[in-house]
Amino acid sequence: MKPRPLFDSHLHIIDPRFPLVENDGYLPPPFTVSDYRARTAAWPLVGGAIVSGSFQAFDQSYLLAALRALGERFVGVTQLPPTVSDDEVLALAAAGVRGVRFNLRRGGSAAAADIGAMAARFHELAGWHAELYVDAAELGDLRRTLLELPAVCIDHLGLSRAGLPALLALVERGVRVKATGFGRVDFPVEAALRDLHAANPGALLFGSDLPSTRAPRPFADADIDRVGDALGDAGARAVLCDNALAFYRVPARHA
Fold first, then answer.
1. Are strands 176-179 and 152-154 parallel, antiparallel or unpaired?
2. DSSP secondary-structure letter at 246?
3. pLDDT, tens digit, for every residue of 160-216?
4. What angle do CA 2, 185, 52 make, to 5 degrees?
5. Around 77, how many Cα atoms within 13 Å sit in the side-chain half-sphere?
6. Which of 8, 36, 78, 213 is least surrounded, with the fewest CB atoms within 10 Å of its CB?
7. Exposed/middle/buried for residue 170 (C-beta within 10 Å: 0-12, 13-18, 19+)
8. Cβ 112 vs Cβ 82: under 8 Å
9. Is 1 inside any structural domain?
10. In the chain, which residues have pLDDT < 70?
């Protein structure tokens, strides 16, 4: 792995001390803060984003504990119900949460019908973005809603070859995309990275997707080098670090 500053924009912490909910009969094995630190000890890591999974539903206790443990250069992307109060959102924002996730693929989050109102409200209240785990080929009429929102990010390169044209159209209009889950997609990753980066050099945010729950092929360190192979040194610096620092509003002083 070539030593480049790395902001891990997509990781999961699975701590059995806190509530976990079976999703389609699946309950993930533990992957604690200590596990994450051990797994990434050799990386030039400058921060990251802890993302709530379907199996965590609306629990915030695990996320708040993980943010405290990992420190101020880590932020959170959480799942919330539409009934959440403004005070709860502001408290989460003060703890480091930067976005709300809508898990349309696995569930455990608010529904697609809630995205427009919730995302607009949370952005006005706390500057949060909306994050979607969805096959980009299945966005349908939701594309119009997303383009009306101030800040949107799509997980895992939109997942499918069939969704790439729709994803590229969104990126051209300012939507961000997680360059994560390379073992989850059904298309050549390097070509997709080049096309998306060319459409908007600020769009792609690399993440490890650790511990790669339910991925057909889990993350490997070589996935980091694939970004540099596809985009060169300048593009890799943007995708591996700088784009995420800007998007999550994390100071770049240590990068």
1. parallel
2. H
3. 999 999 999 999 999 999 999 999 999 999 999 999 999 999 999 999 999 999 999
4. 80
5. 31
6. 213
7. buried
8. no
9. no
10. 1-2, 253-255
Specify the 3-state DSSP secondary structure of 81.
coil
Q: Is residue 126 part of a domain?
A: yes
With respect to residue 187, please indicate whether it lies within any of the assigned structural domains: yes
**Number of domains forming the structure of the chain:** 1
Q: Give the pLDDT score at 1.
A: 61
Its domain, for residue 232, covers: 6-247
What is the rounded CA–CA span in Å between residue 146 and residue 58? 22
Q: How many helices (H) and strands (E) does the chain have?
A: 9, 8
CA-CA distance, 169 to 200, in Å (whole number)?
10
The two structure tokens encoding residue 204: 């792609």
42 neighbors 55 (Cβ within 8 angstroms): no
Q: What is the pLDDT of residue 253?
A: 62
Q: What is the pLDDT of residue 24?
A: 82
Contacts of 45 (CB under 8 A, 6+ apart): 6, 7, 8
Check if the beta carbon of residue 73 is closer than 8 Å to that of residue 47: yes
Per the DSSP assignment, residues forming a β-bridge with 77 are 51, 99
CA distance 21 to 18: 10
DSSP letter for 186, please: S
Secondary structure class of 134 (helix, strand, coil): coil
Closest CA to 49 of 248, 252, 253, 251: 248
CATH (domain of 42): 3.20.20.140
